[in-house]
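Dear Dr. H.,

I hope your travels went smoothly. While you were away I took the liberty of generating a structure for the chain from your last submission, since the lab meeting agenda had it listed for discussion. I wanted you to have the full record in hand beforehand rather than looking at slides cold. The sequence, exactly as received, is reproduced here:
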Amino acid sequence: MRDINRNEHSVPEYRPIDKSVYSVLEENCTGLGDRPALSYFGKEYSFSELMCNIDRVASALLGMGITKGDKVIVSLPSVPEAVELFYAINKIGAVFCGMDCRSKHDEIEEILVQIKPKACFVSDFHLKEFTNVDSVPVICISFMKTISVIASFASVFVGIFTGRTFLIARRKNFMSYQQFIRNAKDTPVEKTDLGGDEICAYFYTSGTTYGRKCVMITNENMNSSVLQYAYSQPGIDDTDRFCTIMPLFTCYGITLGTHLPLILGKQVRMIPLFSGKTMKKLLLTEKPGYITTVPAHWECFVKDDFENVDFSFFKGAIIGGDKLSAVAEEKINAILKKCGSPGKVMRGYGLTEASTAVTAQPPQTPKGSVGTNMCWSKIGIFELNTDKAVETGCKGEICVSGPNICQGYLDDKETTDVLLRRHSDGKVWMHSGDIGYLDENNFLYFCERMKRIFVRFDGTKISPYAIEQQMYKCPVVAHCMVYGIDDPKHSHGKCPAAYVVFKDECDKIKAKQIFENFVKTKIAYHLRPVHTAFVNSLPITRNGKIDYFRGKVH
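The corresponding predicted structure, in token form, is as follows:
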């Protein structure tokens, strides 16, 4: 696996991967010994140390009475403990449950009722949201303690100052990670035999399309996702280190950010806290071959100074989670080329329901495309709510079939039946809820979320995405969001309205005049917003996407 020959004729035919995620890691780590596996603020963990730590955590989990089939919530950013917990939970046959470490009281209570976990592992800055939780053990992890001696002392001080230390001491069901590890025994833990069809993890979707849903991912789903990505993405193995800033409560952070590089025998450099303003500094400091990101991480990057900057070590940015505009993609690629990087933006398409990745991006990927299907998956474009394929180049719903497609949503058969449908070809297809099309070479073009489309009083379907793409051509527009409002002149139907954010350097009065003139001259009458609000920012989801379905505009 670590020395994949990516000649297209060497890609093996898919055979069901009937083994656990931990087993795949174990097989591919054999013989790596002292090679670095994780790097965290300059502290390195070898593959041997990683496997020993996983075994110790597995033993501590067993010491708490957690066994096969039990659920364990992990609500952590990109830290070594999250990696160890993920594989240790899988090793003993339990189920890893990722939960956003920004969740509030009500969300946590709902998730606890649904999951019924045997334990919750949370970061110290999230601990206060668990003060009402007394039905399950809560283990607190300070991601500062493993950074340095100074950071460790600072962590102790912050713990006392914020009351976290006293909270842990006072609550019987609260404990520190160090107390948890004391449950471990010295004897090695035998891994539990798991089949590929058994559930490996639960991940919650970000909620921009269907609302918050708990996606069930099997061992085969996750293993097939990263293995076929490795086979399908040229050059992904030609580096010695990856950098992951994606939190490990997300499927993206676990799969492409962690499991993929580790089974390739590569080092994972972990960044728990990240600001898009520091992307240039991060790349120059960590010197990764690849980095897993979302579009929002690159907004400030293009505004930085790149004179005499060397990015020759950098082979590519894996960008998922949301649509990156073609303009932004061109700017980033131009900067990378100017600074000597052989790589470029790898603007993929994927969903949690597909275990993250759906497409790979070969060098010949056309401008504007999000790539082509991975080697063991198929992408189809179908008429809405049917299994009738559309013609090449025509828009329809993006559907995916392959071994990486999830088992559905936990405790929600109705929505699962909407997501997963058996077509007349006998295959189960995942209906993404996204609109796109395939060209004659099978390259996918993502257009928009299906549920954003609205209909005018005269029956004309309006695409907010199409209007937004026109608005982005206006020189003063930084961000925009188009949505439908009730038509004030008719008894039914909707018409477009918009929120617009101007570029920072623009004079707001002049910018408004430029924008209004642009709309009158460049956008068709029936597509022009009947109302436009000029705002300072747009709402975003917790995963950095523009939130088209809820939230406040400022």
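Two observations you may find useful: The first helix runs from residue 21 to 29. The two ends are 49 Å apart (CA to CA).

With kind regards,
E. W.
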